[in-house]
Amino acid sequence: MDESITPAPRGHAADAALEGLFIEILDGQLAPGESLPAERLLAERYGVSRITVRQAVHKLKDVGLVEVRQGGASRVLDPARADARVFELLLRCADRLQSDAATRLLRDLAEYQQLYAIGLLEAASRHATDAEREHLLQQVDTCPATLDAADAQRLEDAFWRRITAIGRNRILQMEMALWQRWTDDQDAIDGDPAELRWFYLTLARQLLARQDPVPFYLASVRTTSA
Question: Which intervals of the chain form a coiled coil (predicted)?
Fold first, then answer.
C-alpha cells in the first residue's frame, strides 16, 4: 500500500478518505478478504479524523466493497460483487486508477454507457412526436459549423438531455439525472468537434425521417473505439 498519500485540503477530508480507500481496493492494494488497516493508521494516512475514516468505511460498506464487523476488523470484499452505486466513485476516481482489473472495469463502464445511449435512442424513436423530432434537428442544426471543445461539450449534453426527454421513459430519465450529477461536467470531448456536430445532426435527421438511428450510432462508436 502507498504510505505517501498527500492529505486533502480542509473541507475535502471525507472525500479524500473515501476515494483513497476506494482506489486502494479497486487497484488491488487492499485485496479481497484482507482486513482494513486500523482507523488510527488510516486517519494518519489521509490526514483526517478517525470519525471521518469510519464514515468513509461505512459508505464503502453501503456499495458492497467492505464488510464491517462489530468488534473486529473490517474486511475488503471482491469489487466484482459491488452494486451499481459504485458507479459514482468509479467516475470520480477513474483517472487515478492504475491496475489492469480497474482498467477492464473502466472499459466495461464505457461499453455500458454506449448501451445506455442505445436505449435512449430507441425510446426516442418509439415515443417522440414529429414536432419534437423537428425541434431536435433545429437544435443541432443551429449550432455553429465550427465548434470549440466547450461548444461541442454543450452540444453533446444538450442532445442527450433532449433525447432523454422525448423518449418519455422515466427510468432512463432517472438514470440520466444520476449520470449528470455524478459526472458534474467532467467528461472531455473525444475527437473533432466538427465531426461531433455532424454525428448528432445525422442522428437527428434519422429520427425526423423515422429511420432507426441505432445502426448508425453503433457503426460510429465502433469505428471510434477501434
Answer: none
Pseudo-torsion of CA 88, 91, 93, 95, nearest 10°? 180
Identify whether residues 107 and 210 lie together within a single domain.
yes
Question: Over the stretch 44-66, which tens digit does the pLDDT of each residue have?
Answer: 999 999 999 999 999 999 999 99
Q: 116, 175 in Cβ contact below 8 A?
A: yes
In angstroms, rounded to a whole number, what is the distance separating the alpha carbons of residues 166 and 211? 16
Q: What is the CATH number of the domain that holds 87?
A: 1.10.10.10
- CA dist 19 and 9 (Å) reads 14
Report if residue 2 sits inside a domain. no
Contacts within 8 Å (CB) and 24+ apart, 67-74: 73/35, 73/36, 73/38, 74/35, 74/36
Residue 10, pLDDT above cutoff 50? no
Looking at residue 217, which CATH number applies to its domain? 1.20.120.530
Number of domains in the chain: 2
- Give the CA diameter of the chain: 64
- CA separation, residue 221 to residues 49, 196, 209 (Å): 45, 11, 21
pTM, to two decimals: 0.77
Decide which of 66, 96, 126 is a domain's last residue: 96
Instruction: Encode pLDDT of 200-214 as tens digits.
Output: 999 999 999 999 999
Q: What are phi and psi of 38, to 5 degrees?
A: -60, 150
Place of cell 425510446: 123
